[in-house]
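Pasting as-is:
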Amino acid sequence: MVSFDLSSDFWEKSLFWVGLLYVTFPLNFLVYGLNDFTDGKADSLNPRKGNYLFGAKLNKEELKSVPWYILIVTVPFLAYFSYVGGGELFILLLFMIVINIIYNYKPFRLKRRPPFDVLMQIGYVFTALFSILLNDLEMLPWQTLLYLTLFAFQAHIAGEIMDIEPDILAKKKTTAVLMGRKKAKFLMFFLLLFEAYILKFWFDDWVLSSFLAAFAFWLLLDVFIFFKNKPYTVPQMKLFGIAMNVAAILSMVWVLYSGNLLHPNF
């Protein structure tokens, strides 16, 4: 939603709804389906998996057909978007697919090569570029792209922090495993502060910057008072997951309503 302006009446255009459908299911299925397919062992040891909030916990037999299902639901959209958007859109979508393959599969398998496991989250920003090309919108300012990139990094680190113990059991190397829980939380803390700074001083957005600053303050309480170096329990992780999803939905509504991320002040 960050690419859109309310004044453009984008919801009246069919391409917007087709694009939203693609990002909601086929693209999500590609991203998380490949992740589950190549991470079965780690997921089987992860107590927070096996639900709609945090993802599936499936055996090899259940997972074996996932790549074929991904292919079936992806190819029609790839063909359609290439037809309506031309070569640029085709290349972008192909690039997004390649990024997911490099992230999940050997010999690259960057999901297990810190710090590339975090840096590769920049792939999420390409969904905004997809929206721009598909809907013929103006390119986002570089300041907005930087903020979105940092947000993707921070969100990924949060998931890795919750998965440290099962990832160690599965011998899965991640940035959070390598750094340890406290240092990973401090990395997340500094990312949050940088994001809050960008929102406040580059976009004059008091709402989102205040929320991220409050989240950063909570992390300090988490590290020094409440949890310190202890792992979260499954109920706690579910509570955090629900809270983060609610916050994400509300932030999308605010970003669309305010339009602040479309207008940096320099």
